[in-house]
Design goal:
The complex is a heterodimer of chains A (about 110) and B (about 110).
Chain A: E1 3-7, E2 10-13, E3 19-26, E4 32-38, E5 44-52, E6 55-58, E7 65-70, E8 73-78, E9 87-94, E10 101-103, E11 107-111
Parallel strand pairs in A: 2-11
Antiparallel strand pairs in A: 1-3, 3-8, 4-5, 4-9, 5-6, 7-8, 9-10, 9-11
Chain B: E1 3-6, E2 11-14, E3 19-21, E4 23-26, E5 32-38, E6 44-50, E7 56-59, E8 62-65, E9 75-77, E10 86-93, E11 102-103, E12 107-112
Parallel strand pairs in B: 2-12
Antiparallel strand pairs in B: 1-4, 3-9, 5-6, 5-10, 7-8, 8-9, 10-11, 10-12
Classes of the chains: A mainly beta (about 110), B mainly beta (about 110).
Chain lengths: ~110, ~110
């Protein structure tokens, strides 16, 4: 069966520090992968998505970047975190049009 | 482009009350429609889905019918429980389109005992 792993679950980082969040998918190949952010009490904001290795589409210009070094691995990074980067980060993949997304359990990032 | 308009919250109900959360969409193709639920402190879970017109998705007592004529996918439950308190998101996906789910803004539901 397919599973999605996201870590860490919780992260507290100082302003100006780097960030690396990792997401991996098991049990499938060539998935479409997505990074979303949810600010406190807000909706979902699509940050990046990828349809294949090395293919990254950015939805919103910002302090973050994404990479897909392997077929089932999607990484969200920042060189220098800002306070406004705080939020709940969710990774997701899609099996097909009729299946919708499967989300990871999320990473709660607090930048202090 | 594709979009989803979802009933603004928050919604507060008493236990055993009837729930409706409205969702309408705009899409250039023939989308699949979804409802996701997010319990406090957790990620999103797929609640139900419908992939073509007149399909009814159902799960955990929740239902939604894909109405192409009104471009709607309203979520309903006949008798809510305290454990249904969560944020609900309506979403659509069009194959061959943007390759991503388009979400509504979410509706927070609180059910009081």
């Amino acid at each position: 069966s397919q599973t999605i792993h996201q870590w860490p679950a919780t992260l507290v980082q100082p302003v100006g520090s780097p960030l690396s969040l990792e997401c991996t998918v098991e049990g499938t190949s060539n998935p479409n992968l997505y990074w979303y952010r949810q600010a406190a009490g807000r909706g979902l904001q699509l940050l990046f998505y990828s349809v294949g290795i090395g293919q990254i589409s950015s939805e919103v210009p910002q302090n973050l970047s994404a990479s897909r070094p392997q077929d089932r691995q999607f990484i969200l990074s920042s060189k220098k975190l800002l306070l406004s980067d705080s939020g709940f980060y969710l990774c997701a993949w899609i099996q097909g049009a009729g299946y919708g997304y499967t989300f990871g359990s999320g990473t709660r990032l607090t930048v202090v | 482009g594709d979009s989803v308009t979802q009933m603004e919250g928050p919604v507060t109900l008493s236990e055993e009350a009837f729930l409706t959360i409205n969702c309408t969409y705009t899409a250039t193709g023939y989308p699949s429609l979804f409802w996701y639920v997010q319990y406090p402190g957790e990620g999103l879970q797929l609640l139900l889905k419908a992939t073509k017109a007149d399909d009814k998705g159902s799960n955990k007592g929740f239902e939604a019918t894909y109405r192409k004529e009104t471009t709607s996918f309203h979520l309903e439950k006949g008798s809510v429980q305290v454990s249904d308190s969560a944020v609900y998101f309506c979403a659509l996906y069009t194959q061959g389109g943007s390759e991503k789910l388009v979400f509504g803004k979410g509706t927070k539901l609180t059910v009081n005992p």
